[in-house]
Every structure is written in structure tokens, then in C-alpha cells.
């Protein structure tokens, strides 16, 4: 296992289009997180899954955003009717549940540019 | 109360110098404090982390100092190298519930050869 994998690495889309990103966590990790990072800022929490259950969503996650984690494995983050303000790096992280190692390991991110 | 304040925003040191990056938090419920290193176009990578029951932790050239009463913690990089040039983020979380991280705004470090 080579770590958290995110696809695509880069996405350019026109305003108003829908986009979907995929995250494959480390295989034994049952916790999965999505964060958003804008230029010059630290990552901001968007949402959290434990196995297939989405247990917390940030207020940053507007109605246009939806995330899923079917079968508790990979996760997808969809943004509908994209806006220029959605341009950011979308990061996925995974970790184990205690008493396992709860350190979060991040993927390389998907950079979204909305034109 | 959820914020983590990080300073400085940027830092330039000579090779071999000891850059120090500082963070402060308000929420006393935080009990896990990691530092992440991020290179351009890459995701953050965990460097070192500390819990409030110790005041200092060293791993290789990286040291975290933690002051629980002041609600502050800092990262020291000993014998800094040009390869350490990156953006460094502090974070804080609670080791219960979601374990989500609250990140600082980052420090861009440049180590001159």
C-alpha cells in the first residue's frame, strides 16, 4: 500500500459544471476526512466518515457539496454547479480508530480550478 | 475558540540555522498537536506530534516545545538544510469524537544554501 491516493490530481472546469473527486484511503484505515486548502492557508475540515457513515459535516460544506463512502472503502466528493470560489486544493486524509494509530495521513490532493 | 494562530507567516534562515515557528490555541479541550510539512503541489506530511502531558519532544532534527499553561507550542528545526524549505503547518485536535484537525495558517520557510 503506497498511502492515500487521490484522483484526479488536477481538474479544470467551467463555472456551473459538476465535478467529482475520488479518494482511496490506506486500506486498513476506517476513518476518512476531506479538507479544503486555499492558496496561502491551512487545510480546513469539510467532512468525516467512519467506515461508510458520514458522521460530521462542516458548515463550509454547502448544499452543492456531497460526499459518499460506499462500503467504507474509497470516497467521492462531488461539487455541483461549481463556482469560482470553489477553486482550491481538496485533500483527503485517513486514519485508524483507537486503539490503532490515529495519526492522519494525507493524499497529494486534487487541485480544482473553476474558470 | 477553534482557531490556531501561527507565526511567522514566512521565515528565511541560513543553512545550519534554527528556525522557530510558533503556534497558539484557545480551546483547552485540544490534546493532540501535530506539525505537518508541505512541499508545493503535495499533500501535508506528518513531521512530529506532541500531547500535553510532555513539555518537549524530539525526533531527529525536529523538536516540539509545549507550554500548556500558555497554550502555546513551537517547532524548532536544528541544523536546517535547503531541503527543509517548505511550508509548515501546526494543528490541534481532540483525541475523541472525529479527531478532526484545526490547522494554523502556515509558515513558509526558506533555508539558504
Total helix count of chain B?
Answer: 0
According to DSSP, the number of beta strands of chain A is: 11
Q: Kindly name the structural category of chain B.
A: mainly beta
Instruction: Estimate what percentage of residues of chain A fall within beta strands.
Output: over 45%
The termini of chain B sit apart by 40 Å
Globally, the shape of chain B reads globular
Termini gap of chain A: 35 Å
Shape of chain A: globular
| Residue-averaged pLDDT of chain A | 94
Radius of gyration of chain A: 13 Å
Order of helices and strands of chain A: EEEEEEEEEEE
Major sheet of chain B, described briefly? 6 strands, mixed
Radius of gyration of chain B: 13 Å
Helix content of chain B: under 10%
Give the helix level of chain A as a range of percent. Answer: under 10%
Characterize the main sheet of chain A.
7 strands, mixed
What would you say this structure looks like, in words?
The complex is a heterodimer of chains A (115) and B (113). Chain A is 0% helix and 49% strand. Chain A is built from no helices and eleven strands. In chain A, strands 2, 4, 5, 6, 9, 10 and 11 form a seven-stranded mixed sheet that branches. In chain A, strands 1-3-8-7 form a four-stranded antiparallel sheet, with no helix packed on it. In chain A, strand 5 (44-50) and strand 6 (53-57) form a beta hairpin. Chain B is mainly beta and 113 residues long. Chain B is globular and about 45 Å long. Chain A binds chain B through residues 4, 6, 31, 33, 35, 40-45, 48, 55-56, 91, 95, 98, 102-109, 111, and chain B through 4, 6, 32, 34, 36, 41-46, 49, 89, 91, 95, 97-106.
In short:
The complex is a heterodimer of chains A (115) and B (113). With 115 residues, chain A is mostly beta strands.
Topology, pairings included?
The complex is a heterodimer of chains A (115) and B (113).
Chain A: E1 5-7, E2 10-13, E3 19-24, E4 31-37, E5 44-50, E6 53-57, E7 65-68, E8 75-79, E9 88-95, E10 105-106, E11 110-114
Parallel strand pairs in A: 2-11
Antiparallel strand pairs in A: 1-3, 3-8, 4-5, 4-9, 5-6, 7-8, 9-10, 9-11
Chain B: E1 4-7, E2 10-14, E3 20-25, E4 33-38, E5 45-50, E6 56-59, E7 62-67, E8 72-77, E9 86-92, E10 102-103, E11 107-112
Amino acid at each position: 500500500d503506497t498511502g492515500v491516493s487521490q484522483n484526479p490530481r488536477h481538474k479544470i472546469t467551467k463555472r456551473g459544471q459538476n465535478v467529482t473527486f475520488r479518494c482511496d484511503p490506506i486500506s486498513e484505515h476506517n476513518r476518512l476526512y476531506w479538507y479544503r486548502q486555499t492558496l496561502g492557508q491551512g487545510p480546513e475540515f469539510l467532512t468525516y466518515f467512519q467506515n461508510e457513515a458520514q458522521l460530521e459535516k462542516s458548515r463550509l460544506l454547502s448544499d452543492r457539496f456531497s460526499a459518499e463512502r460506499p462500503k467504507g472503502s474509497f470516497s467521492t466528493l462531488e461539487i455541483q454547479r461549481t463556482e469560482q470560489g470553489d477553486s482550491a486544493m481538496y485533500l483527503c486524509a485517513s486514519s485508524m480508530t483507537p486503539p490503532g494509530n490515529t495519526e492522519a495521513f494525507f493524499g497529494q490532493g486534487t487541485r480544482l480550478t473553476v474558470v | 475558540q477553534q482557531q490556531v494562530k501561527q507565526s511567522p507567516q514566512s521565515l528565511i534562515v541560513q543553512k545550519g540555522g534554527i528556525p522557530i515557528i510558533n503556534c497558539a490555541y484557545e480551546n483547552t479541550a485540544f490534546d493532540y498537536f501535530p506539525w505537518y510539512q508541505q512541499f508545493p503541489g503535495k499533500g501535508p506530511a506528518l513531521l512530529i506530534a506532541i500531547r500535553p502531558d510532555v513539555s518537549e519532544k524530539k525526533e531527529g532534527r525536529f523538536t516540539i516545545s509545549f507550554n500548556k499553561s500558555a497554550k502555546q507550542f513551537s517547532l524548532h528545526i536544528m541544523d536546517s538544510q535547503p531541503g527543509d524549505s517548505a511550508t509548515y503547518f501546526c494543528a490541534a485536535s481532540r483525541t475523541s469524537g472525529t479527531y478532526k484537525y484545526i490547522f494554523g495558517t502556515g509558515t513558509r520557510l526558506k533555508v539558504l544554501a
